[in-house]
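Title: Prediction job returns without error message
Component: structure pipeline
Severity: low
Priority: P3
Assignee: unassigned

Description:
Job completed but the reporter wants confirmation the result is attached to the right record. Sequence as submitted:
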Amino acid sequence: MKKTRRGFVSVSVLTLVTGCLSEQSNSSETRETAIPDMSKQGQAPKVSVRKEIQKKDVEYIEGNNSVRYKSGYKKPTSNTQNKTRMVPTYDVIPFSQWAKAQCAELATSKINKLLHERIDEELSAISVGINHTSKEKEVYVDYSTTLNPEGEVIKEPSIPFEKVVEATPKVVISTIGLSGKEHKESYEIHVKTSSRKQQ
């Protein structure tokens, strides 16, 4: 039977970025050891991706080089507004701060797409993430193992680690454009193993 391919979840330290990931248990048996900690840079050729942002709720402010964007919704405070209808809220941040976040998200989407194209198997327990705790945003591929409370492996990727490394680009150059303003980021992409223990 032909295997189906599933979507990724973008896993990061602070933010979830994309869709849902299916994880599977290899069998009813468990292993007592997790995959050793490893980090290897992707081996596929460098790729570039560019996106022009054209949204009504995102505005470039030239006067102070910032971006005004819709950040959420809130209940209306005015007596003249419909109390049952939520109204949007807006934030303003420096263009560079906004653009760096957009570039990182664009890079994760590109890697996600490439892995689906290059690996014709179910991509369970493999994710593309953004690490927000580093000085500069880090984009990486997470090769994840899940352990039960006793430390036994109950879920792990079905694709060999080296195969994921071979399919992952060495570098992704991500460019965002907004109202004639442009920002570019270059990311070295590593595939990293991780273990998560169930409580």
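Comment from assignee: result matches the submitted record. The first helix runs from residue 95 to 118.
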